[in-house]
């Protein structure tokens, strides 16, 4: 029975605890006393700026570590995590949406389409400003909704890596944090991916569409989870867990625990490596710079790797 310790409060930590407790043959141990608290796996769900330091300290004890998305808030910190893995550390990135059954079905279908002409994603979260998250990041939506959205886009594009990023701020909160951003990625093959990310809406929407010369796919996770091809609904994956609320399975939280932890404990390379987490952060850094400058930004990103997402959104330092 694998045991998990979850370090950190807020929505992320609470969801991890709920997911672990909902799975048979999994248990939560409290992080009280000396790390790693008898845990087989430790989940880092602290404020994003502390992810790298906490993960590296924990990894030094020999325990397997899963890092809540985003992997870090600076590419310098992400580099440290990737370097630690190269040295034998068991550290993996996470993204619950990439474990969601409908997203998995979408990715399998999208791979059959060949070269994509266009990809469009609307990832709009309901405003939680009054009740969470416990540690709002100054980078705003690029650090809340952004990592999950970019993770799904990169997984959809597969080896077709972004080469240029444009981005603009659509809305800010009263404290200056971004709450809505539009990001456009251009890839090496010519695919254009447009992302609308928002964490201050009245109602959630999560809608992803891709098109090639031969077909088109649409995935909706919110408000009505379903997958369609050329306007025809496809069969939904059968539920695997008798767990409520169903959203724990729909949004990948259960399979994230079961699969990511099992890979690390079984000595297998994790599906979401630290390198993948760094690739996601690189796109977010380019988007943050583009928000501030109004100009397109090349990827691979050549900026100052010690600057955080919040620093980059704020403009030249």
Coarse shape = globular
The rounded distance between the terminal residues' Cα atoms is: 49 Å
Main sheet makeup = 9 strands, mixed
Q: What portion of the residues fall into strands of 2 or more residues?
A: 25-35%
Q: Low-confidence parts lasting 5 or more residues at pLDDT below 50?
A: 130-135
What is the CATH topology descriptor of the domain at 3-96?
Rossmann fold
**Overall average pLDDT:** 95
User: How do the helices and strands follow one another from N- to C-terminus?
Assistant: EHEEHEHEHEHHEEEEEEEHHHEH
Question: What is the top-level CATH class of the domain at 3-96?
Answer: Alpha Beta
Number of helices: 10
CATH superfamily of the domain at 3-96: NAD(P)-binding Rossmann-like Domain
Strand order of the biggest β-sheet = 13-12-11-10-6-9-8-7-14
Cα radius of gyration in angstroms = 19 Å
Number of strands: 14
What is the second-level CATH architecture of the domain at 3-96? 3-Layer(aba) Sandwich
**Percentage of residues in helical conformation:** 25-40%
Structural class: alpha/beta
Q: Please, could you describe this protein's structure?
A:
- The chain is globular, with a radius of gyration of 19 Å.
- A 9-stranded mixed sheet has the order 13-12-11-10-6-9-8-7-14.
- The chain has a domain at 3-96: Rossmann fold.
- By secondary structure, the protein is an alpha/beta fold.
- The termini are far apart.
- The longest helix is centred in the last third of the chain and has 20 residues, at 274-293.
- It has helices spanning 10-22, 51-59, 75-86, 101-111, 141-144, 146-157, 247-250, 253-265, 274-293, 309-314; strands spanning 3-7, 27-28, 41-44, 64-67, 91-93, 116-126, 162-172, 178-187, 192-201, 205-212, 216-222, 226-229, 232-233, 297-298.
- Mean pLDDT is 95; it is low at 130-135.
- Helix content is 33%, strand content 26%.
């Amino acid at each position: 029975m694998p045991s998990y310790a979850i370090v950190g409060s807020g929505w992320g930590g609470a969801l991890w605890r709920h997911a672990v407790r909902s799975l048979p043959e999994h248990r939560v141990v409290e992080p009280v006393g000396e790390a790693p608290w008898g845990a087989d796996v430790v989940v880092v769900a602290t404020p994003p700026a502390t992810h790298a330091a906490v993960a590296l300290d924990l990894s030094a004890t020999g325990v397997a570590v899963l890092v809540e998305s985003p992997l870090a808030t600076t590419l310098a910190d992400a580099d440290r995590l990737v370097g630690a893995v190269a040295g034998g550390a068991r550290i993996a990135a996470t993204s619950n949406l990439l474990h969601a059954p409908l997203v998995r079905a979408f990715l399998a279908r999208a791979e059959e389409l060949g070269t994509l002409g266009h990809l469009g994603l609307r990832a709009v979260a309901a405003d939680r400003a009054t009740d969470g998250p416990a540690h709002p990041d100054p980078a705003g939506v690029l650090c809340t909704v952004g990592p999950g959205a970019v993770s799904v886009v990169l997984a959809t594009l597969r080896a077709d890596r972004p080469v240029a990023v444009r981005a603009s701020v659509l809305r800010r909160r009263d404290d200056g944090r971004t709450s809505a951003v539009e990001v456009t990625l251009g890839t090496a093959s010519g695919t254009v991916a447009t992302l609308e990310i928002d964490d201050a809406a009245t109602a959630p929407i999560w809608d992803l569409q891709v098109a090639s010369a031969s077909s088109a796919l649409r995935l909706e996770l919110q408000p009505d989870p379903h997958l369609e091809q050329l306007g025809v609904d496809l069969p939904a994956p059968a539920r695997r867990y008798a767990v409520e609320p169903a959203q724990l399975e729909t949004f990948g939280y259960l399979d994230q625990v079961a699969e990511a932890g099992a890979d690390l404990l079984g000595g297998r390379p994790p599906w979401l490596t630290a390198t993948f987490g760094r690739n996601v952060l690189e796109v977010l850094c380019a988007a943050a710079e583009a928000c501030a400058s109004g100009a397109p930004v090349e990827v691979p990103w050549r900026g100052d790797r010690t600057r955080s997402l919040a620093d980059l959104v704020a403009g030249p330092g």
